[in-house]
């Protein structure tokens, strides 16, 4: 648990720094591509951090963590309406769907565990709402198409063909500042381990930014 706590502290620092980078790019003179890139990396760090926190945090805190991600997911998703940003929109949709799945799972746990009938009804309603949100993001075009990845992101697609290392449920798949990209568990979707979702989004995001001639400033600590 102590290792996960240290990992969480590092990821929280990165998440905040990348979000601040995205916020700065929203100011006049900023680049929309960099803004989106920073926000997607921040969301990837959130996925990794909040997934690990569930080991020691109470269920209510875990649900609150996941819920805090949804506004920025929606913002990025809605900003990526231009055709050239379709893949980034797909990344935001994939992350949002993964978050909604975690919230739906938490609500169903409440249904199974609570002795209060009213709480069970509310939790069941919440779970249904989150599952409906997942379906909407899936219909809106989540990042999942092999043809798209192979054509637009050949480096990431190559990683998708490799066999991922045998990692534990809470072992990070990649780091924001690496240039030695690991294999990607593919395909991924809402029900996948959030760390696998973060790994795919991070690699697609980095490859896209490089193609734009851009890169993110990664904090040293």
What is the tally of beta strands?
Answer: 0
- The shape, in one word, is globular
- H/E element string? HHHHHHHHH
**Count of DSSP helices?**
9
Mean pLDDT across all amino acids? 92
Helix content: 55-70%
Low-confidence sequence ranges: none
Q: Which structural class fits the helix and strand makeup?
A: mainly alpha
Name the beta content range.
under 5%
Described by strand count, sense and barrel closure, the largest sheet is: none
Distance between the termini: 21 Å
Radius of gyration: 17 Å
Overview of this structure, please?
The protein is mostly helical and 221 residues long. The protein has helices at residues 2-25, 32-53, 59-68, 70-79, 86-113, 117-139, 146-152, 154-161, 194-211.
Mind sketching the topology for me?
Elements: H1 2-25, H2 32-53, H3 59-68, H4 70-79, H5 86-113, H6 117-139, H7 146-152, H8 154-161, H9 194-211
Helix pairs in contact: 1-2, 2-4, 2-5, 2-9, 3-5, 4-5, 5-6, 5-9, 7-8
From the structure above, extract its key features.
221 residues, mainly alpha, 9 helices, 68% helix, globular
Compact description:
This protein is an all-alpha fold and 221 residues long.
């Amino acid at each position: 648990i102590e290792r996960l706590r240290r990992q969480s502290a590092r990821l929280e620092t990165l998440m905040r720094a990348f979000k601040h980078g995205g916020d700065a790019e929203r100011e006049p003179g900023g680049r929309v591509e960099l803004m989106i890139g920073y926000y997607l990396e921040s969301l990837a760090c959130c996925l990794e951090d909040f997934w690990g926190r569930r080991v020691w945090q109470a269920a209510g805190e875990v649900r609150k963590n996941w819920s805090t991600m949804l506004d920025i997911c929606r913002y990025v998703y809605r900003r990526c309406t231009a055709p050239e940003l379709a893949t980034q929109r797909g990344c935001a949709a994939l992350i949002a769907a993964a978050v909604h799945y975690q919230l739906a799972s938490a609500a169903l746990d409440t249904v199974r565990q609570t002795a209060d009938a009213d709480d069970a009804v509310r939790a069941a309603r919440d779970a249904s709402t989150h599952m409906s949100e997942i379906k909407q993001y899936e219909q809106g075009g989540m990042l999942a198409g092999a043809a798209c990845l192979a054509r637009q992101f050949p480096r990431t697609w190559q990683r998708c063909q490799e066999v991922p290392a045998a990692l534990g449920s809470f072992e990070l798949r990649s780091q924001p500042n690496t240039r030695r990209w690991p294999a990607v568990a593919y395909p991924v979707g809402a029900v996948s381990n959030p760390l696998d979702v973060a790994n795919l989004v991070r690699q697609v995001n980095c490859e896209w930014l490089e193609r734009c001639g851009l890169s993110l400033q990664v904090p040293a600590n």
